[in-house]
Amino acid sequence: MSEITLIATCAMGLEAIVAREVRDLGYDRVTVENGRVTFVGDELAICRTNLWLRTADRILIKMGQFKALTFDELFEGTKALPWSDWIPEDGEFPAEGRSHKSQLSSVPACQGIVKKAVVEHMKQRYSTEWFRETGGRYVMEVALLNDIATLTLDTTGPSLHKRGYRKLITEAPLKETMAAALVLLSRWRAERPLYDPFCGSGTIPIEAAMIGWNLAPGLRRSFAAEAWPAVPEALWAEAREEAFDLVRDDVPLEIVGSDIDSAAIDVALAAAKAAGLAKELSLQVLPVAKARPRGDYGCVITNPPYGERLGDRDEVEKVLRQLGSITARLPTWSTFILNPNKQVEHYMGRPADKKRKLFNGRIECQLYQYYAAGGLYGWRDNPNKSKSPES
């Protein structure tokens, strides 16, 4: 297999988590940039990273990078790249693009130049003047930043947050990738209880259960590169077999989600069933004021309503104060709250132990992190638990 430079794209603020996931898969030649993690792998890495990365959006093949101040430079640089190593004669190869702080600012024009350049490259390779484009889909992207053009091929297709279990959505749903990021940042482990008192469509509990059982998030979906001759079917089979072998579905889980909206809980129950986790999760209609998490050394992970899109500000203040009262009675629990409201600490009645800026879609939020007495999970009171690493 050949050495390939790959890019895992992600939401701003999640780069370090994606990089950790990539390294955990065994790929240690990693470079972290804004909104992307570049690493070196092979054809099998395309399969494994698409199946396993919980917090990335897409896996791209980096075809090349060069300076492009003119359309001629963009055309010649693109034409020189090895497109025919990946795209067969019948491949469909649409061009997408974006430009920021670059002289070539017209995205439609850049897309047209890239398409024309790749066609010229393909004509030389396949000795034909016309391409049917009836085969697999190879989405090319030209990204211009400070006059540097980066050309990529998308191996993923629909974004990785589309796991395949959520057929219905609620208003203002949390993406699966962000929900998984919150669980990973909490350092929650399957032997501990987890509670989400604003679970909505159940994304945080479902993603937590998948992490607890070590279920690869891409097992229930397909990917664009599965139709590519350059990534043999045998490699996808190998990657999926590895993923199935690593499932730990004998681990008991204590994961609870609740929400005041009965329609949202109906959606959550349907999603849990589609994910094969309906029997492992407790999802119930319940106002936050009546939430009573059980057990010790647990974790509250939640994305309360923001006010701008759901409910009004007075109601948001009320439920956040109620959440603060509940978590104050849980000295061995840690709490993680994703919210854009700058008054969260005031409503919770205490400053967060740590804050981390994250973007939920285009909304800038803070992840407010409240640790249990004695550390992230009460290490001083629970010496038999392993020490928490940096989160």
From TrEMBL:
Domain Ribosomal RNA large subunit methyltransferase K/L-like methyltransferase residues, every copy: 163-368
Domain of life the protein comes from: Bacteria
Swiss-Prot/TrEMBL keywords: Methyltransferase, Transferase
GO molecular function: RNA binding; rRNA (guanine-N2-)-methyltransferase activity; rRNA (guanine-N7-)-methyltransferase activity
Occurrences of domain RlmL ferredoxin-like (ranges): 5-60
InterPro entries (alphabetical): DNA_methylase_N6_adenine_CS (IPR002052), RlmKL-like_Mtase (IPR000241), RlmKL-like_Mtase_CS (IPR053943), RlmL_1st (IPR054170), SAM-dependent_MTases_sf (IPR029063), THUMP_dom (IPR004114)
Membrane-spanning segments: none
THUMP domain residues: 70-154
Protein name (database record): Class I SAM-dependent RNA methyltransferase
Organism of this sequence: Paenibacillus piri
